[in-house]
Amino acid sequence: MIFKQLREPLSSTYTYLLGDQDSGLAILIDPVIAAIDRDLAEVHRLGLQLAYTVDTHIHADHITAALEMKRAVGSKIAAPAYERLPCADVGIEEGKPFRVGSLVLHPLHTPGHTDGHFAYLFDDRVFTGDALLIEGCGRTDFQNGDADALYKSVRGKLFTLPDETLVYPAHDYKERFVSSIAQEKRRNPRLGDGKTLEQFKAIMSNLNLPYPKFIDYAVPGNRQCGVCPSHLPEDLAEYCKQMTESQQG
Amino acid sequence: MIFKQLREPLSSTYTYLLGDQDSGLAILIDPVIAAIDRDLAEVHRLGLQLAYTVDTHIHADHITAALEMKRAVGSKIAAPAYERLPCADVGIEEGKPFRVGSLVLHPLHTPGHTDGHFAYLFDDRVFTGDALLIEGCGRTDFQNGDADALYKSVRGKLFTLPDETLVYPAHDYKERFVSSIAQEKRRNPRLGDGKTLEQFKAIMSNLNLPYPKFIDYAVPGNRQCGVCPSHLPEDLAEYCKQMTESQQG
Questions:
Q1: Mutation for testing the B interface, residue in A4, A134, A178 having most B CBs under 10 Å
Q2: Which residues of chain A have pLDDT under 70?
Q3: pLDDT given at position B236
Q4: Which terms are listed as keywords in the entry (chains A, B) (predicted)?
């Protein structure tokens, strides 16, 4: 099994490349449009064929590379069935293992950051998307976010995995790359160390985070499996220029 | 493959249990005498037979369980050949893979914390002992410690492993359980982020750490593969009482 953790620095997103050496097939979890050339070059360098892109949820901070990768190399698009995206080839559901060659992802519905959010358990690793971050979690104040639901997803579902399960989040803003269930159960300041639902809700309702600058473009773009916005206000132009340049270059 | 990360709280030591389901054989890396009953119970619970204990180095802060486990269940003792321990059944050397059933450890001589220190590469995991800790490293001011050597061991050897390699240290004092080579290359305040040898030596020579309270008992005890001191000064009595109680209970 091939495993690569790729970092997209503009949005501090982690993309995960899983490769099955026997079938030559690969999956990319949460690929970012800004890094499409780098990620496809990596798949190629490893002698693999990209079979599927798989998103954990409808992202608000960046554009998924799913559609552009499909156009570039013919990969199929897997996304949570809950979202009913017409552009998806496969709808992910809990209880239905997602298989590509010998790679098997076990989808875990983990709502709370968004209602359609999924984590993916892969052997002794769990790709937690924005549900569980290293010493943090995704915000719960948009996209049908719900602190009650997130508490249940993390403490009632992810924290029941074996202690040694490796936690690979969709983002880290401090260049941490990996954690474990044991580590988050002890150290996560929002959800670990026996935090109650009331404590968690108090933390989440007092974060006072700014409105995400890109959300009104990213969410509709990602509901189309990754359409980069063509008309953007000036303050987002540089961000998207970088995305477009990376995409072409 | 079975993998368990066990924590001994008195010395904040991590012991790693590796099990091969086909042969039923297990290895314990850096077992602690205080936790002997718990660790052997875990091996038994998993339906495994303890074939070997393997130490990364001669510990100064705790007593290895190697000898007591040999007495209890007949496991063999593997230790760095460099140390020429008469009590060891197998001497570990770099370049000679250590095989137990289908488990294969690749020993990496990583001097600097102690001169005879070894790390063990196991597939995509490296057990770094006290050479590389999460956002830290072992001290270099006793047991033939040498900052020049440790810099070379970490930056010249461990940091050349693939970025995704999981770093499992022998200790963590803040309940962190796992890191990766990429993470330590970026975040380790002593050895990461392009630190020069001169910077590292300056950091290590200014730590002003106290003399380790247990070293004068632990080192000779561990050179006998784990003999618990029978006569201790009063200030260490409570520590050893806890060790003995755990050992019996």
A1: A178
A2: 233-249
A3: 64
A4: Hydrolase, Metal-binding
Structure tokens at A3: 């495993």
To the nearest whole Å, the CA of B123 is away from the closest chain A CA by 11
Q: Which pair of structure tokens corresponds to residue A206? A: 């007092």
Q: Where are the beta strands (DSSP E) in B36-161?
A: 49-54, 76-80, 90-92, 98-100, 103-109, 118-122, 125-129
Topology, domain A2-209: Metallo-beta-lactamase; Chain A (3.60.15)
Q: Tell me, what's the pLDDT at B248?
A: 40
Interface test with A, best of B183, B184, B185, B188 (most A CBs within 10 A): B183
pTM of the model: 0.94
Q: Report the residue from A164, A175, A182 with minimal CB separation from B3.
A: A164
Domain residue ranges of chain A, discontinuous segments joined by +: 2-209
Distances (CA, A) of B166 to A58, A180, B169: 29, 11, 10
The length of chain A, given as a count of residues: 249
**What residue type is assigned to position B163 of the chain?**
D
Sign of CA dihedral B87, B127, A121, A89: negative
Beta bridge partners of A49: A25
Q: How far is CA B183 from CA A186, B139, B199, in A?
A: 20, 20, 19
Query: Considering only alpha carbons, which residue of chain B is nearest residue A167?
Result: B178
The residue among A114, A121, A115 whose CA lies nearest residue A60 is A114
Query: What Å distances lie between residue A71 and A11, A38, A45, A58, B125, CA to CA?
Result: 23, 16, 19, 20, 36
pLDDT at B214: 87
